[in-house]
Amino acid sequence: MTTDVAVVGGGVIGLAIAWRCARRGLRVRVYDPTPGQGASRASAGMLAPVSEAYFGEVELTRLLVASAARWPAFRAELEAAAGVDIGYREEGTLIVALTPDDLAEAQRLRAYQASLGLPIIALPATRLREREPLLSPRVRGGAFAAQDRQVDPRRLVTALRAALDAAGVAVSPDAVTDLSAVDAEAVVVAAGCGSAALTGLPVRPVKGQILRLRAPGGAPPGFRHVIRGYADGRSVYLVPRADGEVVVGATVEERADPGVTAGGVLDLVRAAVDLVPELAEYELAEATAGHRPGTPDNAPIVGWLEPGRVAVATGHFRHGVVLTPITADGVADLLCAGQLPAEFAAFGPSRFTREVVGSR
Length: 360
Ligand SMILES: Cc1cc2nc3c(=O)[nH]c(=O)nc-3n(C[C@H](O)[C@H](O)[C@H](O)COP(=O)(O)OP(=O)(O)OC[C@H]3O[C@@H](n4cnc5c(N)ncnc54)[C@H](O)[C@@H]3O)c2cc1C
What we know:
By secondary structure, the chain is α/β, with parallel strands linked by helices.
């Protein structure tokens, strides 16, 4: 059978593209020797366009907000197709700060986010503790981003694979080394950090160490919101899951090695326990590291590399989970209608390939 689209890479981005293309009637095949084991496995799964809006990234923030708005419908469709609960939760993010310097830093970012019209409100310590009584008495103040969400990325991978199975899409356990040898009308490179070797695009690994804790006795964690904290100059996030897991992340390191270090774990645990002292009693269930596919401007690269034949969807850096729905639908539009939606205008590969040509 002829393949219309070969997707290279079976992380959340490649799997979601394959699913959305199959929904549109394309014959699709995914290539990946270890699907779901890249950045997507390490990921915390925060859908946090508001609390993650950062200085100088207005275009990216717009894309994050647009993709987050698609999540409720994407989730409903995926869970129905796959019969898998992906752990979608809507409690929002509490931003909390311990010292006067931490609070100043949190307020500076909140003022910027509010200036973009994003829904974030300042909260005093008393109001934060009303929402989450387990917060440390040292918490001085912070904010609430009510529209931030979360999913469990491992469940998301399971659901996408089940939806692909149901749609008759095969995942071949092969690594692709030569795009010209792939037997398909069009190829989509969605290989995360592996995309650089296949395309020459500037995608680099940015290491993140991240922990999974477990509440004692299989109970749910004692807090419901995602908590993003500033603790004595260290920044940390805590993501509670219904099954008792608490994800504690993450370091940001310009390194490609997979090792978990004592210093990385120490920093994360210290900041987590400073914010929510009860976490000291939780089991340390997993310490791992993943590599975010980073780009020079921290934004994804989506579009044709060779028009009609090779497209890319990579470089999602810290935001691949929140950007999954808009990327998958955008690439399906590109393959079916020849054009990406306007939201992707600033994120094409030409912003980097032009530089390469110009510098010769
Ligand atoms: C610690 C950490 C926390 C994060 N937290 C969040 C968060 O809270 N919210 C959020 O939105 N994002 C988060 N991210 C970012 C997010 O996880 C990534 O942006 C996203 O997973 C990227 O997905 P991907 O499919 O592009 O890459 P990956 O998941 O890395 O998948 C790429 C796949 O390509 C395969 N591959 C590579 N080369 C080849 C080849 N030559 N042939 C075939 N297959 C190949 C690999 O085996 C891999 O399975 C986090 C990342 C990390 C590391």
